Amino acid sequence: MKHRFQRTMDNHCSQDSNSVLLQPNITIHPAVVPVVIMLLLLVTGGCASKQVPSPKSRTYDSAKIVSATKVGRTSKVNRSSKGSRVVSTARSLLGIPYRWGGRSPETGFDCSGFIWYVYNRNGINLPRSTSGLLTVGRPVGKSSIRAGDILLYKVSKKGKSLHAAIATGSGTFVHSPSSGKTVCEVSMSGPYWRGRLIEARRVF
Question: Can you point out the beta strands (E) in the chain?
Fold first, then answer.
């Protein structure tokens, strides 16, 4: 009995030497092992290569952001540039003689004709009279006057009650004063003009 059991065990072991045990009662022939290993590698490798898609990130156009944050600043710069151009045109006419009813460098200027011409050269059409200038644009406080604003003064010369000038933004204004004089730039704080300002108006 003992010898029979030993032979049975020997036979079983000899069979195991030609095969690989993977699970109880399941064996695979050695020739198949490389194929199985390759399949396992492919399966595990495929799983490892899969990536979880990341959430789509939102991209922002920095140029648009910068542009949006500067809208207010840009509009102020544009208005300031217009005022500077108006002042530049006015100063280019220094020395042109005064003439009642005149509105060109060839004929000379009266005060409102001078303002009409300067603004017209900058694409802005204004009334031809000083009383008309009181109605254009919007009023501006004296402390807020800047380049290109229209200044209206109270005067009393030969029935003339209003006088108009163009502010330079630096405490002076350019105007065509009166007969016998020429277009000039004077201080707003001068003794004659200091207390005569009625209103300042801004048209852009």
Answer: 20-23, 26-28, 103-104, 108-109, 138-140, 150-157, 160-167, 172-175, 184-187, 197-202
Q: Is the pLDDT of residue 11 over 50?
A: no
Burial class (CB in 10 A: 0-12, 13-18, 19+), 85: middle
How far is C-alpha 185 from the chain's CA centre? 35
Residue pLDDT, tens place only, 100-115: 999 999 999 999 999 9
pLDDT, residue 95, reads 98
pLDDT for res 18: 43
Residue 175 near residue 166, CB atoms below 8 Å? yes
Residue 196 exposure: Cα atoms within 13 Å on the Cβ side: 18
Task: Tell whether the model's pLDDT for residue 7 goes beyond 50.
Answer: no
192 phi and psi angles, rounded to 5 deg: -75, -40
Beta-strand (E) ranges in 25-142? 26-28, 103-104, 108-109, 138-140
Residue 158 has a CB neighbour count (10 Å cut-off) of 8
Nearest in space to 187 (alpha carbons), one of 166, 168, 173, 201? 173
Residues contacting residue 133 through CB under 8 Å, at least 6 positions apart: 112, 115, 126, 127, 150, 152, 164, 201
Q: Backbone phi, then psi, for 45, in 5-degree steps?
A: -65, -40
Q: Rounded to the nearest 5°, which phi and psi values hold at 124?
A: -120, 125
Dihedrals phi, psi of 68, to nearest 5 degrees:
-65, -40
